[in-house]
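I'll show a record.
***
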Amino acid sequence: MLDQTIKNFISKDYFSLSASLSVGEAINCIRQYDDSSLHEYYLVNENQVLCGRVTLHCLLMAQPDQGIQTLALKNCYTLNAEDDQEEAARLFRQHSLFSLPIINDQLQLVGIVTYADGMHILLEEDQEDIERMMGISGEGNAVAYRDLTISQHIKNRVGWLVALALLGFISGSILMHYESALDQLVILAIYLPMIADSGGNAGSQSASVITRALALGELRLKDAWGIIRREFAISLGLAAILALVAMGRVWFFTSDYHLPGDLSVELVMLCISMALSIQVITSTLVGAGLPLIASYFKQDPAVVASPAITTLVDISGLLIYFFLASKLLLNG
């Protein structure tokens, strides 16, 4: 497994200022260093302990005899060399940093991560998250499509596909169990794809939104109960809208369908809209819950891949659909 700690991106080519300097002395030091690409400077004491940072704009606006420590910004985000590069990506994205100071266990400045390297880390982490959400394994490196061999592509994709294919046997077993229901009421098969697709889409949307919010640090595990309540409220609104769509579709497209016995189109419409509503609510909560569970166990929320959620909610959708159909339409 590749080393993904931030030490792989530490640059020793940085410029720090002694916290004891005056503004005038600091500006003279900056002139001698002669690097116009720098926008901010890190302050250290005599033991190289990081004391803060100061921007070039603040130095130019201050009085020459003013101590630069009085201008120091204390909100200086730092990382240790052994921290994961994903944490660096989060800091660069969330705080729009120009650079990121790296300190050791004694709080001494040992290097920086430059803006260019920060953008490279962001690219790698974003690619890794996208691939994991699509069920593709690998190390998440920003490797061009053509640079990977066919065998590497197969290796990266086959794991999830085999696992999901095995899970698909469960769906087949459910269909076999309710085979008699399909024989008695063929109309159930017409609306089965709509139930499955709506659940998969709702779950994937919810998982994507929560995974992104966790990656950006917008949400924390302590917010889990609030997230679930919010997603539940969202799912109720989505379920109501989709239930109306389902009712309209049944009414306009199958109102003249011949139904066995004393079944009515209205009862079929009620069954399908109820199944769709429950499926959307369940799928949304599953999609929101799985990234939170992954985060709780210190795993990347992106490993809860979109294909996996789709397969899981397909299974739940079949159970919900046929259970309601057997109770409401077939008196089972």
